[in-house]
DNA sequence: AGACGCTGTCATAGA
DNA sequence: TATCTATGACAGCGT
């Protein structure tokens, strides 16, 4: 919207310049002095009528930075123009213009005839965007053919440069003549452009700006221009912020492309030595880059070991701090788990020593240790164990035989010799639990997997009370059902060992120990259940993480929605203000235009229209008529849209 | 006593 | 084909 305002502003300026060229004095010098002061300086000179301003050239090259490096407003304007160009390359809609302007001049009847052929010739040359030398050449070529007659003005309106300098606009003038034939007699001296292609607004404005050299305006409309320009400058700040913020919002799903785009923009901006807009863009870009860096950090954190986390990305979409801390927490957890594993591997080697030491420890303390170990496999059934009832009710029929086979195992538990339990610590002490437990590297295993060596001797110690009075109760309470079954079946391996040993070793155990079919089936069931238990824990953790991440995403999107709504309101408000100022400027320009009789144009009867190619013409406000109803409706629609 | 959350287990699909 | 993993569904248990 701010850019559209700039379009209007520039178009009006150049309209005024063009009108001055053809004889109508519309002085906007005082307005340009505040905003486009460098332009005025450039336009000074005796032969300025033939010199195209580098206004459009600078826009096409370095957006004016090389031309007016010390004009922050202009830099800002060009930066905004550049942003608009980038947006337009993406297929963004045009900014419709609704300024209708007439080129006011005097054309004699003979001129009309002379201008006919030249019109066609000039039309073929292009759109009036010739460079100065080309234009001068064209001028020299067309002048003998009456091109200057097109620019002939009335004596009272005659301006020196117009007699020859405006010939660079022969194309427009010829089109004016074509239109004159269609206009009423009262408007015979008014010329206007017949086409208003909005697609070429930028080029057209550039072409119009060529005439800026010739006529430093002298009329004052300070209050309008200054207000408009002040609004423009302030609004451009908002524009940059809006652009930056909008890019950030888009980073959710298009992080890479937007980041690349930001980098490109940053490089472009960095290439410029000065310019407030560049600085502001840098600010925005730095914000972007900082945000991107956070993503990069998160990504780096994922690459460090959590990359396989399927929902880590979801977590990263949340607030930076939270995601960062959460990620750090995951990292810390993983690090500590690895440390625990490393330490526990060493503990396996000192199981016997530890057992000897633990034998002197109070059983109650060991019980507390067991509870703190979090061995879900061991303590999940920490409640009153009723192996027979619970297992029979929950187990499938496939295990009924096993259960039947183990029928009475609850009573056999007491008779289970401690041999098997002691074997827990000796048979598979060399099992690399740290390698086998972490099949799924995305989540840390339950703590019990990290302390097998401590738990096993612990259990061995806990077997000590077996000989005591409450020994069986403690054992039944602490052992899982599978553990009890294994003990009942005289399987000399712990559940942990059965679950975590490699499949090759497991198969060797099944084959090499002479187990009965019931024992083999129980071993397979224990292994399967243990692995599935771990898988279920990981699955639930993932599910919770996903839910958490989605909740945070919802909060973030809600905040984004609120911010966008606020920006939308601000944009609408600014758009309305710009539209009003455009209307006021149009009225002012029309009030300063004169027809051949020297009378000002009635703003109610005429309107300014700025075409997409930059040509600004004065068009009459068509009255409601049957023949022109279509065009009138179009104008009305345009007016309605403008309002 | 019912709701709720946690956990273990089973069945199943897919790798 | 066997094994492993992931996940929905179900049930038991504790709060």
Automatic annotation (TrEMBL):
Biased composition (Polar residues): 117-126
Gene Ontology molecular function, alphabetical: DNA-binding transcription factor activity, RNA polymerase II-specific; RNA polymerase II cis-regulatory region sequence-specific DNA binding
Domain BZIP residues, every copy: 522-585
Residue stretches of biased makeup (Basic and acidic residues): 130-148, 460-475
One GO CC term on file: nucleus
The UniProt record lists the keyword Iron-sulfur: no
Matches recorded under SMART domains: BRLZ
Region (Disordered): 111-157, 370-399, 449-475, 620-643
Coiled coil: 540-574
Residue ranges, compositional bias (Low complexity): 372-398
Keywords: Activator, Coiled coil, DNA-binding, Nucleus, Transcription, Transcription regulation
Pfam families: bZIP_Maf
Family: Belongs to the bZIP family. CNC subfamily.
The name this protein goes by in its record: Nfe2 like bZIP transcription factor 3
Natural source organism: Mastacembelus armatus
Lineage of producing organism: Eukaryota, Metazoa, Chordata, Craniata, Vertebrata
């Amino acid at each position: 919207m701010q850019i559209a305002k700039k379009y209007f502003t520039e178009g009006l300026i150049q309209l005024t310049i063009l009108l001055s060229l053809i004889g109508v004095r519309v002085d906007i010098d005082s307005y340009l002095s505040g905003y486009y002061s460098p332009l005025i300086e450039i336009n000074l000179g005796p032969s300025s009528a033939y010199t195209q301003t580098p206004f459009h050239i600078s826009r096409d090259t370095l957006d004016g930075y090389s031309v007016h490096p010390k004009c922050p407003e202009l830099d800002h304007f060009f930066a905004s123009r550049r942003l608009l160009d980038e947006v337009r390359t993406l297929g963004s809609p045009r900014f419709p213009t609704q300024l209708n302007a007439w080129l006011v001049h005097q054309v004699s009847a003979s001129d009309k005839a002379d201008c006919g052929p030249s019109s066609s010739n000039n039309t073929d040359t292009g759109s009036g965007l010739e460079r100065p030398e080309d234009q001068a050449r064209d001028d020299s070529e067309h002048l003998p053919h009456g091109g200057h007659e097109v620019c002939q003005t009335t004596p009272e309106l005659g301006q020196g440069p117009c007699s020859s300098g405006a010939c660079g606009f022969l194309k427009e003038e010829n089109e004016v003549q074509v239109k004159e034939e269609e206009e009423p007699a009262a408007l015979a001296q008014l010329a206007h452009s017949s086409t208003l292609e909005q697609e070429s607004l930028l080029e057209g404005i550039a072409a119009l700006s060529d005439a800026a050299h010739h006529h430093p305006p002298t009329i004052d409309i300070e209050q309008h221009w200054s207000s408009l320009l002040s609004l423009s400058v302030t609004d451009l700040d908002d524009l940059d912020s809006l652009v930056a913020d909008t890019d950030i919002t888009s980073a959710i799903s298009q992080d890479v492309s937007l980041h690349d785009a930001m980098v490109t923009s940053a490089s472009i901006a960095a290439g410029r030595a000065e310019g407030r807009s560049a600085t502001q863009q840098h600010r925005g870009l730095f914000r972007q880059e900082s945000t991107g860096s956070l993503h990069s950090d998160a990504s780096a954190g994922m690459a460090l070991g959590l990359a396989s986390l399927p929902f880590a990305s979801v977590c990263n979409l949340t607030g930076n701090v939270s995601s960062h801390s959460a990620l750090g927490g995951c990292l810390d957890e993983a690090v500590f788990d690895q440390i625990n594993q490393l330490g526990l591997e060493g503990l396996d080697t000192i199981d016997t020593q530890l057992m000897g030491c633990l034998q002197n420890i109070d059983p109650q303390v060991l019980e507390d240790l067991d509870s703190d170990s979090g061995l879900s496999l061991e303590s999940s059934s920490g409640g009153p164990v009723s192996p027979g009832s619970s297992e029979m009710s929950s187990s499938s029929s496939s295990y009924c035989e096993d259960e039947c086979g183990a029928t009475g195992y609850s009573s056999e538990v007491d008779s289970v010799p401690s041999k098997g339990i002691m074997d827990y610590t000796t048979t598979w002490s060399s099992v690399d639990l740290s390698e086998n437990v972490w099949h799924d590297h995305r989540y840390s295993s339950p703590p019990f997997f990290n302390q097998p060596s401590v738990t096993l001797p612990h259990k061995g110690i806990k077997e000590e009370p077996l000989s005591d009075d409450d020994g069986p109760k403690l054992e039944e309470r602490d052992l899982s059902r599978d553990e009890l079954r294994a003990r009942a079946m005289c399987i000399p391996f712990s559940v942990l060992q059965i679950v975590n040993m490699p499949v090759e070793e497991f198969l060797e155990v099944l084959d090499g120990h002479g187990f009965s079919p019931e024992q083999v089936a129980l071993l397979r069931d224990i292994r399967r259940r243990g692995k599935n238990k771990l898988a279920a824990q990981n699955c639930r953790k993932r599910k919770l993480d996903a839910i958490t991440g989605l909740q945070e995403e919802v909060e973030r999107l809600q905040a984004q929605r609120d911010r966008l709504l606020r920006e939308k309101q601000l944009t609408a408000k600014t758009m309305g203000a710009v539209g009003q100022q455009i209307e006021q400027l149009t009225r002012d320009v029309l009030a300063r235009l004169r027809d051949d009789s020297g009378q000002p144009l009635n703003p109610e009867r005429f309107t300014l229209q700025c075409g997409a190619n930059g040509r600004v013409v004065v068009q009459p406000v068509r009255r409601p008529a049957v023949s022109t109803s279509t065009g009138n409706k179009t104008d009305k629609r345009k007016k309605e849209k403008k309002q």
